[in-house]
Amino acid sequence: MKDLVDSKERPINAISWFPILPAGVSVVRTELPTGDSFHAKQTAYELTIHDVPPTLKEEYMPPLSSYSYRVYFNFTSFRTSAEFWKSEGKDWAKRSDSFMKESSDVKAAAAAAIGGETTSEGKLRKLYAKVESMENTEYTRERQKKEEGEVNNVSDVLKRSRGTSTQLTELFVAMARSAGFKSYLMLVPNRSDNFFTPSWMSFQQFDDVIAIVNVDGKDLFLDPGWRYTPFGKLAWQHTFVDGLREVDGGTDMAKTGGDGYSANHTTRVANLTMDEHGEITGKVDITYSGSPAVLWRHRALRGDSESLKDSLRKSMEELLPNTLEVKVSSIQNIEDYEKPLAVSFEVKGTVGTPTGKRLVLPVDLFESRSSATFAQEKRDTAVDFDYAAFTQDAVRINFPKGFELEATPKDDKYSIPKLAAYDLSVTSGPNYFVTRRNFAMGDFLFSAKDYPTLRTFYSQRETKDKESVVLKMLPVTASSTPGN
Question: Domain span at residue 204?
Fold first, then answer.
């Protein structure tokens, strides 16, 4: 029988495995007798497992591969996973460097992009902006090879001014190298799908590639292939993950970092006026920074301006009371990824529930239609929010003569020390009230054992969000009767 070989014709002489199994369950390896001395021994691998629960589908679940039971097998010519990654990583780096080989046109393009910039960071920003301005075919369309032709190196990517996410990242690294920067590639998984497991000897675990540039002695992680990611940032899908990076002379394992909650910032501001008939008109302004902005910008790439407006309108309608009509009035900085994305809405309609001589209004219009996030008492899987985030609300409602403020919720705040914080307050004047709400989630991943604490915090927050402001209608006096 022909010996088993890998893709490089190396003999497969070892089988190893990496299990993700419940406690007390393991793969059992058994040598089987052959019955004669002319045949090699055979080996059996057996796994016995029972009472396996069904795969759960819960809100805010981490990738299935992080907790569902499985066994990864390696059929390999390498004795250890470290040996595999060192050898195969070096081959990957060699292929990548060949694609990014220095050329006069790439060097000239880098120099033109940098222009008269003198600082290291300034030069790199110019190169980053140059690559970000090119068409990323993964967000538009991939051209047929007969239309596009073969892409053999970064010079071909530069010539076309378009490419895949990987090709654009490789072009950026090549341009940075030509400008004198020590620059490298790094293979990373997409954290929304899976995490990297070094014990599983497979490059299938990697989804994307990012760039690492040494600036003034410090490594800077960049994501030029993930459209609209600001300079110096990584897409959240590439943050806090292990991967394989180039180093001088080969490759090594590395881990990416990420930003805190303040980098993913959403502000929601409403300025509304109510007339004597209870009709509301006014304006809502939303600004998105960080990951929320990238999400909306990607939606814009996959549609036209009208479909974007429609999606934004529907997203606002899902927040506000359904008695309000919503219209998008302006969208700013949709392509300027270094600035917050700003969206303005016009709203009109009615708000609140009349009860006799009173009108009961939600304390925060943006939370008026929210439901309980974690209704179930127990949970078996971790909670994954994708990224840390910060949301700030400011809602002002001006009411006319004939109404006065009777009751508002008391100011309150809740927290999970060092992980999450929430506060809500109401201030008022003779004919208005203003609700201010801050909600910061400082981490994105919570284990199942932390679920009770997280659930309690969310329950406290959501109960507060559902409290009301009460307006009282004043009696009509003779002096206020029309004509007097």
Answer: 83-255
